[in-house]
Design a protein that fits this description.
The chain has 167 residues and is of the alpha+beta class. The chain has 5 helices and 8 strands; from the N terminus they run ββαααβββαβαββ. A hairpin with an 8-residue loop joins strand 4 and strand 5. Helix 1 crosses helix 3.
Length: 167
């Protein structure tokens, strides 16, 4: 578990399925990440099993639940993703709209970034986002990642950010 001033960042559990069902059906998730077909609690449990759980086992990392330290309420997710087309892990995050603008994304992403550097000793960390997702771009720049390039992936244009510039 990663602990910050206001947050607990921990691995997902099946008990988090109601939260996942809510998060992956928010307008911004659907717009910027895409419809994952999670329409029931069973779908949400399957999402946790085939997403975070499989990543924890295969890679030793994955998406983690971000909780308010005081209330224990889930706010979003933040963590690392293994992409076949990237040399280093990709940091990603998503939050419920009602907590936008309160700094939880920056606080959790910075904590995860620091964890990746210190605990996993990664020399670089990537992030990908839509060039139209100005909130994510702002957060990535705030935690020190810089845009390297745009590229096409399955007919979608994405922006690649990196902690360290590519040579």
């Amino acid at each position: 578990m990663i602990i910050t001033e206001r947050l607990f960042i921990r691995p997902f559990r099946f008990a988090d399925a109601p939260f996942i069902l809510e998060l992956v059906n928010t307008e911004d998730w659907l717009k910027f990440i895409g419809d994952r077909g999670v329409k029931t609690l069973t779908d949400a449990e399957d999402f946790i099993k085939t997403g975070p759980f499989e990543s924890y086992q295969a890679n030793g990392y994955g998406a983690w639940l971000v909780q308010d330290k005081a209330s224990k309420e889930p706010l979003g997710l933040c963590g690392f993703f293994k992409r076949d087309y990237l040399d280093w892990p990709d940091i990603g995050f998503a939050f419920l709209p009602e907590v936008y603008g309160q700094g939880y994304g920056t606080e959790s992403a910075k904590a995860c970034l620091d964890y990746g550097i210190t605990q996993y000793q990664w020399p670089n960390i990537y992030a990908i986002t839509s060039p139209k997702n100005s909130a994510s771009i702002k957060l990535l720049e705030k935690i020190g990642l810089k845009c390297q390039k745009q590229f096409a992936l399955e007919a979608e244009i994405l922006a690649l950010f990196a902690l360290k510039p590519e040579d």
